[in-house]
Here is the input.
Amino acid sequence: MRTLEEAKKAVIEDFSMYDEWLDKYEYLIDLGKNLEPYPEDKKTDDKLIKGCQSRVWLDSKVEEGKIFFSADSDAIITKGIISLLISVYSGREPKEIANDDFGFIGEIGLKENLSPTRANGLVSMIAKIKELASETASMAADEVLTAEDAKALAPLYDNVVLALKQVYDPEIPVNIYDLGLIYELIINKKHEAFIKMTFTAPTCPMADEVLAQVKECVADVPGITGCEVELTFEPPWDQSMLSDEARVELGLD
Amino acid sequence: MRIQDIRKMFPALSQTVYGKPLVYFDNAATAQRPESVVRKMESLALGTNANIHRAVHKLASEATEEYESTRDVVREYINAESRQEVVFTSGTTASINLVAFSFGEVFVGEGDEIIVSEEEHHSNIVPWQMLCQRKKATLKVLRVDDEGHLKINDLTTLITSRTKIVAVTHISNVLGIINPVKEIVNICHSKGCPVLIDGAQGIVHQKVDVQDLDCDFYAFSGHKIYAATGTGVLYGKKKWLEQMVPYQGGGEMIETVKFSGTTYAPLPGKFEAGTQNINAVPTLKPAIEFMKLLEDGELRREMGEVEERFFASLRMTGSKVFGVPRGTERKIPLCSFTVGGAHHEDIALILDKMGIAVRSGQMCAEPLMDRFGVTGMLRVSLAPYNTVEEVEYFEKALDKAIKMLV
Here is the structure.
């Protein structure tokens, strides 16, 4: 894979091939048309980037420490612009993106040549990419916690667990925590909680309600400033994940 | 008089953008200013600059004369009965807010109703919503049909004994159809309900006679009829203005001030608190003079040709135009439209690079966008200085943009 600097240089070179702005738009339109399809069910309000005249959705996922972006827009030039950003930034380490100044946008003169609303949109897209990257970076295991931080976080973990114990899978009389549905719980220095969880089966009809309930319960814990819940089925849940209490409750022992 | 003669009066039109001649087609947002208006701004700023009404010195009396004679010119132009019925504001928005507050404070109470139409600009919706919130009143909506006409037959049932005012636009800034405001006023008055007309677009394209219309309030902006920005007018019938409470307190709007109580200045001063936009309001004089030039028959015919060519160009590019005139109804040279398969913003952006200024988005009329199920539209609005050549160039440019995008 190209380095970030190489990727930027390639975009700058591509852009400099065209003298006329109409040709540059053609280039962006092409990029937009060739952007990988974005899942319809991810076109939700929380993925929308604010500050654009057209609608732009941006999503990210992390794989092996690298952050990957996907996006869509109902306007094709905007889609081209976000596609260009994705081509440069997707698949890189979150930290590298979080620390980047996005100065190459200035070098290709993109922002100056957009209408004010679209220029604002571009600024918002960059801000969102940086925000997602720094969120991920701060979640990363190498976040350095001082003794003070750890002391402040300890009671929060306890209280979040208590909150999670209030949430039940509607079909099983055991709370989701003791059921072993919570795979990961991370609270960062900004006191934002990140939860990775699963369901007993991928076909759980109440999944959306339970996820919403988890988010709400955790966000309500005093001191917690935000909550993100990620659903995973890797590894799939099995009975060995039940807590001892749950085994007793379900009469398995 | 010909379009080219009009065009020469506007220095801004001879500029280029991105190396291409400017084609200014966003006139409904704001018009360009003729040289006479710019000269007036200049002479007010460089010469006749003193605060009005107060001091005895020469400059102050000249500035006061400039300002107050403008009121006479406006009164005559809209045929108001008295100069006391002409209040200067910063624009249509301020005029409507003034009524929503000052009229609402006196006449609207809990459980009362206010009616606006579905095709209103946000400026003729939000001030009434705020009033309703403040007074626990209800905002009711007069709907628009599929072709963009107000369903005025619904008005008779929509108005009840609790309806305190109907606020409706003369010409929608999206649909460009001239609403039958006189008929609307008649219906409302027969139910004992006063009417405010948002004339932001109406005054640009119609000769307005407020006595003939018999409307209770008429609000408009200066900058759309070629005067300076930050100028506007609220026409209000004296019987209402007299009963309404002031909108803002301050200098100039008072008669006497004591800590035991203050009495207010007579109309229209009661509604003009503080230092007014004294360097800009007098530009309404050359602007109205210019508006009168546009009544020339020869010019009208030529403008009519440009309009026809413009409507035809949209048909030729297969655009879907919102607001379809019926029978003898006239549509002003303002069209909002969408192009299948292309986003309004993309088209506006490409046209911009070809030197053409058009508007894209919701046009400050989100409820109307929802009504037609679109996220936005493109809008082209012509002024008397726009030429057939510009329209032809626009048609080619729009065609090219569509080919690039679809």
Observations:
- Chain A touches chain B through 17 residues (CB under 8 Å).
